[in-house]
């Protein structure tokens, strides 16, 4: 035995040495010089007036967020000055957390960024160079793109890899010649129709004259300044209760784009922690997470957003007079006390229910319900859902509803709340690779213990079973009570209302589930985290989904639950169910009217009956019927449509009744397809959403083996959905009938390419950027506060 132990220890030491070597290698950050440019005395162009609009129309669609190629963010002058880095933010293999690289937070000038692995794309040093353009990587990329144009509306060559999974090439000035030789189609704008002659000339002249930038102007009017002062005063009150409420609100609003609906022309703002008080220049507290210890006195500040808005991070939240009154009534009018400020340590970060226990639970839950769609948007637009490993835990289309706050157990039963709160902790705080297994088993066990207690408590509380009035009806006015979530393989979207066909699964969220999901995917998620941190987050989100499913099954007959559950967990899902989840409650009855359901083993019939009961319960907030996807009446026309639009929708509607078995073309449709239909001066925008069916969504890998393509469907939605269009079509109304017929006839990938050649707007189409701008304009016309630049990194090569 001693010899075996020595061998085991030797093996462990060897593994640790290897891991240490890998960690050391991964932690090396290149540094770069910060060359000073020669600047022309007279500038032909202004950055804000002439250069920024070009970046907005042709560049930011790829270079707008953490996933910008080479971290080159062109949404602001600061991002342009910072430059590019070969270090990827999204890396599912790194063994330790990487240094964060947030603009305006982790370094405040170009010199500091050079020491953090970023090189200038505007200025460089080249022996014998007499022209500033010869020393600018940005110009060389633009010149490369202009010198190798692709044929109009052609498919991009197969050797040019597209998509977010492509390897990043981040050439510096010294290596650019080799890059250009190896990647003749690797210039900018990448694999799309290029700059106009005027745009190219403008950028060329600007760079030749020194590429001078200036910050975006910020000149709020008196009413807006007063709103900022009022809200900063609210967030920085001195009482212990007020400080705890401010911390709770900050941790729930830090990712929001805040605006003042009572002030015309209001800027958007971000709520940040600053070392400086109101009235002084903001100096952000550079913690990785919003609930990390600031280690010093700080102030909550509203920082104006002057960069270009991109749709994928644009999560809006209004701060108006009504909101202030709501906060006062929810949090500060009742009599509750704080004995001491909670800390920011490991235990506090992992369990927000204990940190904020002093704030009435009912107030916390109601606060989240008031803007449930905002919080769900945070779940699915946050950095955690950039990659497919994060989103494969959810199905492609499902509805989400919430327990009524008047009956939800956690917020109304203090004894139950005290019993389960210690079990509601969240993993991921320890990002060490060796913590992955222990953390997962610990928190999985706590979650399963909690779910058993919850099932027992609810069964005893209502011995006759769940009633439909336990589902929140939005208090008769709030449409956030009913949400539809769509997954698009490696991204997701949410929309108010019940859209599409009755889904295969429905989530019911109570307060513990809603709050845990938010903290796990938003507050506690570190986009710069290690593979251990990312895996812990993903695995726990799997438990969250399973918990929402258990919550829903209370509302269907006991003898129908197992059949529905088995349909969700087919094949390998049965193994995951056996080793990871707690047992299903198939004993407690339900006190809802399922008398019309003859075959309770037919999960589709049961789901449709529940949908009917749900719509009756929430009839005041369910909104107009989704006649594009669920037409059950004599007429399917939406009210208020012109004759032309009724004609368009009559041609599109039949597609939603098909499946992959009856219409194989559906299985070849991209995840998110924008469709513009025109008729003279009229134009309408729709989104075709490909809903892929799965035997289960219980595993991190091997998704292709779990696809049930014959059960795929398509949902047709009015307007745009999603931040990442995968393709788009532009079809005159007179040609919509042959377009639909051609789509129905698709049998091979070549057939799809032929459809794209006739009606599609490929990346290389001369009108590609014009159409993308029109989709953004449509959002601005219909939902002005929600408009932002769409991301085309996922745009497919059809």
UniProtKB/TrEMBL annotation:
GO terms for molecular function: electron transfer activity; heme binding; isomerase activity; metal ion binding. It comes from the Bacteria. Pfam families: CTI. Transmembrane segments: none annotated. Keywords: Heme, Iron, Isomerase, Metal-binding. InterPro entries: Cyt_c-like_dom, Fatty_acid_cis-trans_isomerase. Residues 46-211 form the Cytochrome c domain. This is Peptidylprolyl isomerase. The lineage of its organism: Bacteria, Pseudomonadati, Pseudomonadota, Gammaproteobacteria, Pseudomonadales.
């Amino acid at each position: 035995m001693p010899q075996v132990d020595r061998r085991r220890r030797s093996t462990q030491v060897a593994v640790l040495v290897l891991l240490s070597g890998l960690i050391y290698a991964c932690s090396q950050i290149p540094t770069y010089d910060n060359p000073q440019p020669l600047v022309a005395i007279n500038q032909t162009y202004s950055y804000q007036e002439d250069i920024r609009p070009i970046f907005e129309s042709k560049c930011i669609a790829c270079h707008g967020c953490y996933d910008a190629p080479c971290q080159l963010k062109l949404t602001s002058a600061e991002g342009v000055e910072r430059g590019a880095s070969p270090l990827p933010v999204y890396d599912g293999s790194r063994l330790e957390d990487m240094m964060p690289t947030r603009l305006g937070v982790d370094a405040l000038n170009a010199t500091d960024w050079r020491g953090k692995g970023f090189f200038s794309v505007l200025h460089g040093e080249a022996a014998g160079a007499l022209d500033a353009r010869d020393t600018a990587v940005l110009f060389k990329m633009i010149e490369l793109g202009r010198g190798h144009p692709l044929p109009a509306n052609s498919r991009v060559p197969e050797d040019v890899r597209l998509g977010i999974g492509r390897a990043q090439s981040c050439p510096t000035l010294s290596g650019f010649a080799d890059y250009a030789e190896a990647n003749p189609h690797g210039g900018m704008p990448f694999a799309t129709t290029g700059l106009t002659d005027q745009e190219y000339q403008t950028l060329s002249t600007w760079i030749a004259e020194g590429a001078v930038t200036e910050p975006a102007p910020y000149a709020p009017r008196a009413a807006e300044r007063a709103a900022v002062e009022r809200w900063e005063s609210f967030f920085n009150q001195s009482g212990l209760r007020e400080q705890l409420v401010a911390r709770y609100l900050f941790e729930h609003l830090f990712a929001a784009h805040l605006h003042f609906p009572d002030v015309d022309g209001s800027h958007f703002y971000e709520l940040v922690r600053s070392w400086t008080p109101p009235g002084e220049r903001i100096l952000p507290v550079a913690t990785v997470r919003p609930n990390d210890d600031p280690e010093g006195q700080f102030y909550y500040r509203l920082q104006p957003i002057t960069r270009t808005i991109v749709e994928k991070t644009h999560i809006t939240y209004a701060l108006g007079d009504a909101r202030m009154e709501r906060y006062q009534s929810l949090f500060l009018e009742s009599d509750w006390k704080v004995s001491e400020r909670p800390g920011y340590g490991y235990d506090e970060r992992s369990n927000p229910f204990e940190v904020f226990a002093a704030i009435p639970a009912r107030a916390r839950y109601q606060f989240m319900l008031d803007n449930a769609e905002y919080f769900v948007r945070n779940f699915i637009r946050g950095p955690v859902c950039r990659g497919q490993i994060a989103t494969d835990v959810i199905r492609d289309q499902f509805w989400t509803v919430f327990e009524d706050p008047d009956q939800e157990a956690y917020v109304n039963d203090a004894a139950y709340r005290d019993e389960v709160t210690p079990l509601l902790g969240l993993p991921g705080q320890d990002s060490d690779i060796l913590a992955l297994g222990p953390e997962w088993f610990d928190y999985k066990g706590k979650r399963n213990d909690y779910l058993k207690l919850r099932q027992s408590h609810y069964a005893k509380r209502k011995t006759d079973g769940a009633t439909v009035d336990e589902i929140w009806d939005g208090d008769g006015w709030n449409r956030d009570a009913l949400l539809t979530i769509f997954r698009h393989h490696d991204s997701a979207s949410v929309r108010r209302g019940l859209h599409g066909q009755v889904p295969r699964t429905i989530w019911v969220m109570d307060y513990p589930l809603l709050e845990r999901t938010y903290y796990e995917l938003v507050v506690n998620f570190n986009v710069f985290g290690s593979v251990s941190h990312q895996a812990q987050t993903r695995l726990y989100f799997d438990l969250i989904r399973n918990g929402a499913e258990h919550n829903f099954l209370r509302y269907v007959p006991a003898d129908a639950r197992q059949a529905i559950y088995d349909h969700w967990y087919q094949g390998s899902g049965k193994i995951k169910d056996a080793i990871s989840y707690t047992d299903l409650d198939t004993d407690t009855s339900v006190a809802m009217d399922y008398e019309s359901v003859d075959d309770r083993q037919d999960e589709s019939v049961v789901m449709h009956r529940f949908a009917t009961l749900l719509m009756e319960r929430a009839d005041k907030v369910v909104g107009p019927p989704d006649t594009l996807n669920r037409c059950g009446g004599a007429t399917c026309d939406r009210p208020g449509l012109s004759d032309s639009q009724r004609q368009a929708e009559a041609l599109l509607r039949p597609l939603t009744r098909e499946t992959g078995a009856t219409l194989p073309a559906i299985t070849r449709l991209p995840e998110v397809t924008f469709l513009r239909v025109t008729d003279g001066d009229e134009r309408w925008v729709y989104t075709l959403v490909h809903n892929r069916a799965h035997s289960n969504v219980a595993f991190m890998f091997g998704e292709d083996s779990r696809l049930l393509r014959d059960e795929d469907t398509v949902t047709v939605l009015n307007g745009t959905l999603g931040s990442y269009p995968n393709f788009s079509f532009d079809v005159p109304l007179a040609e919509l009938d042959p377009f639909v017929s051609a789509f129905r006839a698709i049998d091979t990938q070549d057939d799809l390419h032929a459809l794209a050649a006739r009606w599609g707007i490929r990346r290389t189409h001369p009108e590609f950027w014009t159409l993308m701008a029109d989709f953004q304009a449509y959002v601005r016309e219909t939902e002005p506060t929600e408009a932002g630049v769409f991301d085309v990194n996922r745009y497919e090569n059809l």
